[in-house]
Design goal:
The chain is an alpha/beta fold. The chain contains nine helices and eight strands.
Length: 224
């Protein structure tokens, strides 16, 4: 079922101002490669500093990234969410909190190479991304081959991926995929305890309340 658009969505999006760096509409797919390259953002100009950048893919309503941004003023954060209906809530919360170190991209993850420069990201956070359990949809998983190759371009020399999920089958599939694509996988955990250093997401709160164990890992490109 298609999500019903929120009332006054366009006006609310516009009111987010500079917090929302880009909103990727159908126009994007009509652009030439040269025009797409012109969209590339400059994080140092956006944030006014060169602090390390954490990128969250599928930020939802922003529970994780807003808490992280508040706790870590020494870091910058970019949150990606393809659903305008959802990202507007995160933007509005960031606006109310007057956070200076977080920005948002209303774009598809597969297009991030057009929006962000290579080697600009220190951490890519995959928090409870959709497992797409049907095998025919495996290439949509955020730990599938094409995404992992894209992450290698975005990550800097010390950059890494962190993943959390309640879906063990997806988790184990992700480990295999990461290894196949030349990543070193470490800090693997099949029952992650709650930590003050890692805020709980909306989905994580729900799954923990149901007693589901949370799987987590980190991974970095080998020879990075």
């Amino acid at each position: 079922m298609r999500m019903r658009l929120k009332k006054h969505l366009d006006e609310r999006i516009a009111d987010c101002g500079a917090l929302l760096l880009a909103r990727e509409g159908d126009f994007f797919y009509t652009l030439t490669e040269e025009q797409r390259r012109s969209l590339r953002l400059n994080p140092a100009e956006i944030f006014g500093n060169e602090h390390p950048i954490v990128l969250e893919l599928g930020c939802g309503k922003g529970a994780w990234i807003l808490q992280m941004a508040e706790r870590h003023p020494e870091l910058n954060f970019i949150a990606v969410e393809k659903l305008s209906n959802v990202i507007v809530v995160a933007c509005e919360q960031a606006q109310r909190s007057e956070l200076k170190n977080v920005r948002f991209l209303n774009v598809r993850a597969e297009n991030l190479g057009w929006w962000l420069p290579n080697n600009c990201i220190s951490r890519i956070a995959l928090n409870f991304s959709c497992p797409f359990p049907k095998k025919t949809y495996a290439n949509r998983r955020l730990t599938s081959k094409n995404y992992l190759q894209l992450y290698k371009k975005l990550l800097n020399s010390v950059g890494y991926i962190s993943q959390k999920t309640d879906n063990r089958d997806f988790f184990e599939w992700s480990i295999d995929s990461l290894v196949e694509q030349g990543y070193e996988v470490y800090d693997v955990c099949y029952d992650l305890p709650v930590s003050a250093d890692d805020p709980v997401t909306e989905y994580e709160s729900k799954f923990r309340a149901q007693g589901a164990p949370i799987c987590a890992l980190k991974a970095k490109p080998q020879n990075a």
